[in-house]
Design brief:
Radius of gyration: 18 Å
Largest sheet: none
Strand content: under 5%
Structural class: mainly alpha
Number of helices: 6
Number of strands: 0
Oligomer: single chain
Length: 119
């Protein structure tokens, strides 16, 4: 993954840039390769959508609405911005279910590829 990160940095052609996104992509790819057994290109639309939803979820859950929903669980059933937390949760679950389904279709018990195969 270091090589892909280096290529991304070189692609900036010595212009000033914010390395935050490239470092996030690299870190996420390392985790994905361990858990899912595959890495994603930094421009992969599904990967970027996954990271965007994940980032938004972390901000929402750590913010006021997340704290309010944790303190008063009934708030979940009321209309409001706190529902975005649950919408994002459902999107992340669908993303993971798609990968798990693909793994089930190609599963070989004698050749575990990653954590999904192991469990």
């Amino acid at each position: 993954e270091a090589g892909f990160l280096n290529q991304a940095f070189e692609g900036e052609q010595s212009c000033p840039f914010d390395p935050h996104f490239h470092l996030t992509y690299a870190t996420a790819n390392i985790i994905c390769s361990i858990i899912f057994g595959e890495r994603f290109e930094y421009c992969d639309k599904k990967f970027l959508t996954f990271l965007c939803i994940l980032d938004e979820s972390i901000v929402l859950e750590g913010g006021f609405w997340g704290q309010l929903t944790n303190t008063f669980p009934f708030v979940r059933h009321l209309p409001g911005p706190q529902n975005k937390i649950y919408e994002n949760h459902d999107k992340l679950i669908r993303f993971l279910e798609e990968i798990i389904t693909r793994h089930k279709d190609t599963w070989d018990p004698d050749d575990p590829r990653d954590f999904i195969d192991a469990f």
